[in-house]
Amino acid sequence: MASAHDVAAYILKKQGKMTAMKLQKLVYYSQAWSLVWDDRPLFSEHIEAWVNGPVVPNLYRIHRGEYFVGADWPYGNPDNLTKKQRETVDAVLEFYGDKSSQWLSDLTHSEEPWRAARRGFAPTEPCGNEISHASMAEYYSSLPRA
Q1: pLDDT digits over 5-18, tens only?
Q2: 145 falls in which pLDDT band (50, 70, 90)?
Q3: Is residue 21 one of the residues assigned to a domain?
Q4: What CA dihedral angle connects 131, 133, 135 and 141, to 10 degrees?
Q5: How many domains does the chain have?
Q6: Partners of residue 69 on adjacent β-strands
Q7: Which domain holds residue 17?
């Protein structure tokens, strides 16, 4: 199985420099759609429902304090993704890749997996609740393919 760092490295290799928030959302959507299209997680790291949307804490620990993330992500290897995994991420990038980080954050705020994980928390209150694979698979499988 690939890691979230491998997925991040692949996304950055394909898209180039981007905001850390956008990277987080693209990694999240890659995981969500892998659960739907491939019936399996893309990576094992968990995703939490933070104030600005879904965040992979393992990635955050690396880019913490950075607004932009460069195209060279030395913490993962894009070649660790299988052909099928690359196809999934490519489809995600085709649909979401040209969107702004704020647009992506706003979208996640309107979707049930993030909202469910944050139930009971104020909009600006920190939350470390995990967004489950089950909630992502259930929600995104009800949507048209990206």
Answers
A1: 999 999 999 999 99
A2: low
A3: yes
A4: 130
A5: 1
A6: 18
A7: 4-141
How far apart CA 15 and CA 90 sit, in angstroms, is: 10
Helix (H, G, I), strand (E, B) or coil at 130: strand
Is 146 a domain residue? Answer: no
Question: What number of CA atoms fall less than 13 Å from residue 55's CA on the CB side?
Answer: 20
- Residue 38 CB partners (closer than 8 Å, separation 6+): 84, 85, 88
Specify the pTM: 0.96
Residue for token digits 């892998």?
34
> Lowest-pLDDT range, 57-61, 71-75, 105-109?
71-75
Asked if the model's pLDDT at residue 109 lies above 90, the reply is yes
Nearest to 23 by CA among 36, 12, 35: 12
111 SS3 class = coil
| 3 state SS of 45 | coil
Please provide residue 19's backbone torsions phi and psi, each rounded to the nearest 5 degrees. Answer: -70, 150
Distance CA 118, CA 135 (A): 13
pLDDT above 90 covers what percent of the chain?
88
